[in-house]
Design a protein that fits this description.
By secondary structure, this protein is an alpha+beta fold. Helices cover 44% and strands 19% of the residues.
Amino acid sequence: MDSTILVSYFEKYTLLDYVIAYGSMGREETPCVKDQAGNVNLYNDLDLILVTEEKVKIALMVPKIKKEIKELFGVKWVDLLIWDNIQLRKKRNTIFYYDLCFKHLAIKGSKKDLAKILVPFPQKKISTYDFYCMYQTRMWAAMSLLIGHEGCH
């Protein structure tokens, strides 16, 4: 999937320090399907973290942002997390944070600075339960692609 559309979209949001894609888009595994007319549409959702010190102001804009992104990409779901810089820098011993460190896409903000902030920890610190949850969610996403859709890249 071409992320330049998202990069252009978020340029107007000057209150955002970073916009980070995670999930399938961050892993560059964004599933898409072709409709009957041959148009490529995203099959899954978009997962984004909006980093700002103006969380209240951005939270008020979330319905508009979600609506516009849904229209841009033809998706049904847009998951937006709103973090401040302290939350971004907080290290967590979870599979989500570990995955975020290795598999994210910087939509807005310095990629170099973001790489310094998102520092992974040893895998052995992740709980077995976190691995189980990751397996379940990834299997659900993979299985949903097998239900009568022609895949695309």
